[in-house]
Design goal:
elongated, 14 strands, 6-stranded mixed beta sheet, 63% helix, 2 domains, alpha/beta, Rossmann fold, 4-stranded mixed beta sheet, 13% strand, ABC transporter transmembrane region fold
């Protein structure tokens, strides 16, 4: 049991250090002086609230003494004083909550931007999401929910701990002075000074120990609950995004089973969570109820011996409650501490994965990409080796060169590494070695098989990732027309989920329209016409050749119909090399 306790404490302190590592950059940021002002104000208001509680404690003594003495004038004076103290307490409570919420949003904004920046480094979101690592599930939840929970819980728990510490220091002296000494007849009349303080200490320590024993499983269960809830939400999003394919396949029953399976995992962990919470609540509720009468029972001997009056008894009971509450802070905060620890763990792993991804490239564990030092008009691959997520080799390219102005088709069996080559040139390879030399000052564009149409207007989709105002409206409409989407010209500025409106073939036409509009020097097409019929495919390539005559085209594809559309054809065979199959194939 002692070993388990030590292990649990080590994990807790590790979470504290990890939490500080997440929080510290915000408080050290040069532009966050206002955050310190807000924190200082919140701390000052917290201390003011404790001071007001001390004043209420003193008021209790005087108020109940006036009742015992039937002092009507004193009774009204004490009610007036209570009104002043209550008004001050309300003002402090309101502004403490308000300023804490302002600080919360400021901190959350900073943390969200920091996580976004780490995740959206070139290629990082793709590599982290596609790395197959079970520890980095649902990055969207980590940025949205975990960042929110971390900031909220850190502020609440830190300020709660501060409040409890100051309350303990403030009321411990009061309780010591009110307690007097208790003579223990069974111990030969030994006198215990400040005995109520010792009773509160023992009562709280025993309660904290019991709460820790009962609530320890909450840490693991809370973390697992967050993961399973996120998995269930992701499954729902998949159904929403693929509703047409599911409907066409009549896959609703199968999806229902899959969703039920995901939710059943949520329910099973929830059952374990609430059973543990129930045991902890049995204890904490009983502990709290006993705390209401325990101090009066402990102070009763002095009251009935006429050592103190009714006001002194009530003041002692309240002071005992404040000390006991401060010492028992961990009992009340245990569920939130469990959630906080799980949240810190998830954010730490996510930040580490993004950092490790950047470090992998810095350490040379991915192909090195550089621009040609002179104005060369070729793309070179030198000793290129590409690895899959599990570390096995996909393809090896000893030497290859692509010249400006060529139209090259890369073919090969599925899984041979064709798309991986394009990803390596784009700088998002997961692992490998070698060198890729890009043409000096050339503008490159990559067109994947599965188009990405961000929510917004069609004009924004065509300009992506650049700003809309960089392009002449007439040029946008012309690109749309030559891509065979002229019927949407009157809806260019209408915002909607275009990925749901357009068919897969139309979405690929949008990507061709994007190329026609943005006029890159080099374009890499990865199965970018697979959803089009052969005539439409030829139409799109012809538009590309006509309106982007100076653009170098490198295509990946399987169709034989692509061969006549390119000057050169290459094939990846057995993952060992790239062999030139043909030169001077007739162009359209």
């Amino acid at each position: 049991m002692a070993a388990r306790t030590r292990s649990s404490m080590r994990l807790f302190w590790r979470a504290v250090l990890d939490g500080w590592a997440i929080a510290a950059p915000f408080w050290r940021a040069p532009g966050e002086r206002m955050a310190w002002v807000l924190l200082g104000a919140v701390v000052a208001l917290t201390l003011s609230a404790v001071w007001l509680n001390v004043r209420f404690n003193m008021w209790n003594n005087s108020f109940y003494d006036t009742l015992q003495n039937h002092d009507l004038a004193g009774f009204w004076r004490q009610l007036g004083l209570f009104g002043v103290l209550a008004a001050a307490f309300i003002v402090v409570a309101v502004y403490r909550q308000y300023l804490q919420q302002v600080l919360y949003m400021r901190w959350r904004t900073w943390l969200t931007e920091r996580l976004d920046q780490g995740w959206l480094q070139p290629g990082t979101a793709y590599r982290v999401g596609a790395a197959g690592s079970a520890r980095i599930d649902n990055p969207d939840q980590r940025i949205a929910e975990d960042a929110r929970g971390f900031v909220s819980s850190t502020l609440d728990l830190s300020l709660g701990l501060l409040n409890s510490t100051v309350t303990l220091v403030s009321f411990a002296g009061i309780l010591w002075g009110l307690s007097g000494s208790l003579v223990l007849p069974l111990l030969s009349g030994v006198s215990v000074p400040g005995y109520m303080l010792w009773v509160a200490l023992v009562y709280s320590v025993l309660g904290t120990w019991a709460a820790h024993r009962l609530g320890r499983p909450l840490v693991g269960l809370s973390g697992e609950q967050q993961k399973r809830e996120a998995d269930f939400r992701y499954a729902l999003v998949q159904v929403r995004d693929n509703a047409e394919a599911i409907a066409l396949a009549r896959g609703e029953p199968r999806e229902g089973q899959r969703l039920f399976h995901r939710f059943d995992a949520v329910r099973a962990n929830w059952d374990a969570l609430i059973l543990t919470t129930k045991r902890l609540t049995w204890f904490s509720a009983g502990y709290g109820q006993l705390a209401n009468v325990f101090p009066i029972l402990a102070a009763a001997p002095r009251y009935f011996s006429h050592a103190i009056q009714l006001g002194g008894l009530m003041q002692t009971a309240q002071a005992f409650g404040q000390v006991q509450g401060a010492l028992s802070w961990i009992i009340d905060a245990y569920p939130r501490l469990a959630d906080w620890r799980a949240t810190v763990n998830r954010l730490t792993l996510f930040a580490a994965a993004c950092r490790d991804d950047r470090q992998t490239a810095a350490d040379g564990r991915t192909p090195q990409i550089e621009r040609s030092a002179v104005d060369r008009r070729e793309l070179r691959l030198e000793s290129l080796v590409l690895l899959a997520a599990d570390g096995h080799e996909i393809v090896r390219v000893p030497q290859a060169r692509f010249d400006t102005g060529q139209r090259t088709l890369i073919t090969g069996p599925s899984g041979a590494g064709k798309s991986s080559m394009l990803r390596a040139v784009a700088g998002i390879a997961r692992g490998g070695s070698g060198r890729i030399v890009l043409p000096a000052q050339a503008k490159l564009m990559f067109v994947p098989q599965r188009p990405y149409l961000p929510e917004g207007s069609l004009r924004e989709a065509l300009a992506y990732p650049r700003a809309v105002d960089e392009f002449d409206p007439k040029a946008v409409a012309l690109a749309l027309m030559h891509a065979g989407l002229g019927r949407y010209a009157d809806r260019l500025d209408k915002s909607m989920r275009w990925a749901s409106v357009l068919s897969p073939g139309e979405q690929q036409r949008v990507h061709f329209a994007r190329v026609l509009l943005q006029q890159p020097d080099w374009v890499f097409l990865d199965e970018s016409s697979s959803a089009l019929d052969e005539d439409s495919e030829r139409e799109m390539y012809q538009a590309l050749f006509d309106f982007c005559a100076a653009t170098t085209v490198i295509s990946v594809g399987h169709r034989a119909s692509l061969r006549p559309l390119h000057d050169h054809a290459w094939s990846i065979r057995n993952g060992a090399a790239i062999d030139r199959l043909a030169t001077g194939v007739s162009s359209p």
